[in-house]
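Researcher: Next entry in the queue.
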Amino acid sequence: MGIGKNGYYTLKDIKKYHCKWNIIIGERAPGKSFAVKEDGLTLAYETGKPVFGYIRRNLTEIETAADITAYFEERGINLIEKVTHGEYTFIDYYRKYMWFARYNDDGKIERGSKCGEAFALRTAKNIKSTGHPYLRRFIFEEFITDGEYLDNEPDKLQQLISTLVRNDEDVEIYLVGNTINRVCPYIHQWGLCNILKQQPGTIDQYEQVQEDGSIIKIAVEYSPPSPFAPKNLFFGSVAKSIKGGGWQTGVHPQLPEPRENYERLYCLTWITNNDFIFNISLLAHKKEGYTIVYIYPCKHIKQRVLTQRFNTDFMWSTTLDRTNPAEVCIHNLMFDNKYCFRDNLTGEDFKNSLKNEKSPF
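Model: Structure for this entry, 361 residues:
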C-alpha cells in the first residue's frame, strides 16, 4: 500500500478514502511530496487554472522566487516537464502567483498559465479572502517539525483554508511530514489517537462529528519505505527515521544503575498540552546517597500534577512549588542537567514537549 510499481509513493490508495483532509507521514525518501505536487500541478496544467496551494509554516521558506522554484526541482526527474509533457521546464514565482515557465532562445523567461499560489501559515492573518477562486489542491509541507509550532497551529491552518476556499467541491488538503517528532499538536487536537502506534503501509480514517451532525473525515497514511532509499549511508539515532520510517529518537541519559538501587523520595506528574504524560521522580541512591531526577511515561497520575489545564484541585498547578523542598530539589537538579529517562523515546518526547510549551520546571 502507498508504493507504486516504480518503487515510489503514490496517492492512489489514500484517494480511495475520498477525504478532504489527508495526512501522509513516513521516512524522508519515498516521494510523498512529489506525489502531491504532481497531482496538484497536473490538475493545474489540465484546467489552465491556479488550483495548487503550497503552504509552509514560515514566510522565510517561500520568501523569494528562488525559494519557490527550488521547491519544485527534483533530483533525477524534471517534474514540470513530466506534468506538462515537455512544454515547460520549471515553476516561476511572479506577482504572487506560481507559473509554468521555460526559457526561450534568448535566455528570457516565458510564462504559460498560472498554476497556483504560496502561503505562509505564520502570516496567514494578512491574507485577504478574495482573489482565490480556483484553489482546489493544497499541500502543507513539513507539518511535523522538530522545532517550534505556532500557537494554536491546527486552528490557524483551518482558518487559512477557510479564507482560501469558498466551496469544498473537489478540494483535497494534504499534510505531509517525516517521522521526526512525536510531539505534534495536530495529533492531539484532531484526535488522531492511533498515529503513534500506526504501522508503515497502513491507512487509518478518523471522523470529526460537527454540531450539525455532519462528519468530516481525515485519512492518515503511514507510507512504507521505498526500496530505492539509500540503506547503507545513514547511522546513529536518525537512521531509523531515514531508512525505515520509524519515529526519530536521539540518545538521552538513562539511570546509571538498575532502578532497584534507588529509593524514591518524591514523585509528581506532568501532563503536557499534547497529551503526553510523564512521571517525574526524585530518586536517591541507596548506598552513595546522591539524588537524581528520573522521568518515565505515566501509567497512573500522581496526586501532585503540573499542567496548563484548568483544574480546581489545589494539588494541580502550572509550575513547581518553590516552598516544597522536594520540588525545589527537582528544579535544581534539572537546572544542573541531572535528570535522566527510562529510554531514548521518553527522552525525545519529553524534550520536544518542552520546546513547544512553557516549562513547569
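Model: Residues 14 and 221 are 7 Å apart (CA to CA).
Researcher: Noted, moving on.
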